[in-house]
Amino acid sequence: MDDVPVPVPVPVPVAVPPPLPAAVHGDDAIEAEFQNDFEGDSAYAGSSYAGSVSGSLTETLSSAVARGVEEHGRTYAAYGNEEYGLPIDEEELDRIDMSHAKYIMLLDKKLFLAPINPQPQRILDLGTGTGLWAINVADAFPSAEVLGLDIAPVQPQWVPANCRFEIDDIEQSWVFGNATFDLIHARDLLLSIRDWPKLVSQCYEHTKPGGYTELQCVLPHLHCDDGSAPPNSGLFEFSRQAQDASTILGLPLDACTRYADYMTAAGFVDVVEKRFKMPTSAWPKEKRLKLIGAFEMHNLVKGVSAMSLRMFNKAYGWSREQIEMFLTQVRKDTQNVRCKLYPNISTTCVRILMGS
Ligand SMILES: C[S@@+](CC[C@H](N)C(=O)[O-])C[C@H]1O[C@@H](n2cnc3c(N)ncnc32)[C@H](O)[C@@H]1O
């Protein structure tokens, strides 16, 4: 496949387009614009969500969503069907922010690879998390209104004027007009989506002719090119168990290996998939990859519980103690820089033909 030309952010002052309609499905969507009432709650420190809106039902709903659901000593999202497998607490938000920095390094300081029109009008980020990607894109493209959607109200309050967040479940039907966005982006929707073909079809319907959808994700398979990691390494075992458990839950971690197929079936053209090696620790000699590996090691050591607790408990019935015991070896092997392991990060970028 051909290389995708690198998008160069062009900060041209252009009239911001008229506001988008309320997000996904009308009344159920909650705009994340309220004053923060949860400053004392570390899980939502910095969140713009859950403030004063009129109507007691809305207040009850928004505070329940803001509180989240406690399980296994972690806080999970309360909005949507409560099936998202990772927590949304402060520890997890730190991990997501660090992972954002790692992606930027891996993609050579780019936020995405799609060669979009340099003066886009509307950009959508699905499962935006802490919203850093959306904020960075809004800064890089002042011509665009950037919208980030998430079930969790964990986005910051102070954002560029052309960036906003809404709380919604992207698995529901979207009510934006068709052909609305110059770019639809989603990154690391892990343990999140049960029906990828439906999600990708919605991306197709809502991408403008000539526009792009780009999906980025870490692939669940681990590689070792030189045999330095034994087959019984804790990380290999974790990768196998995580793939099986996620499949049992109907949220398979290997869905990202089928993105290109889903996108082609939906009608997109010019599929370009690129893969980048992501070392699991600081084992590479090359400076940039060494740093990426150091980030990823931290991500794994700190984040592997977040990934595991709900997933292994729901899929296998393992207790929190059993899961933590299993993870002891995973963490130990992750920190062994003699084991030259890596998964790939994949970016899959597709286009809609002009005149479609
Ligand atoms: C691993 S985080 C990735 C966040 C962000 N995309 C990034 O790469 O920094 C996945 C995000 O998807 C959100 N999410 C999961 N299921 C969702 C759904 N059905 N609708 C909207 N957001 C969802 C989660 O709340 C979480 O913030």
TrEMBL record:
For this protein, the record's SUPFAM superfamilies field holds:
S-adenosyl-L-methionine-dependent methyltransferases (SSF53335)
The stretch of residues making up the signal peptide is none
Q: Which GO terms describe its molecular function?
A: methyltransferase activity
Against InterPro entries, the record matches this protein to: SAM-dependent_MTases_sf
Query: Domain of life, per the record?
Result: Eukaryota
Stated name of the protein = Secondary metabolism regulator LAE1
Q: Which gene encodes it?
A: LAE1_0
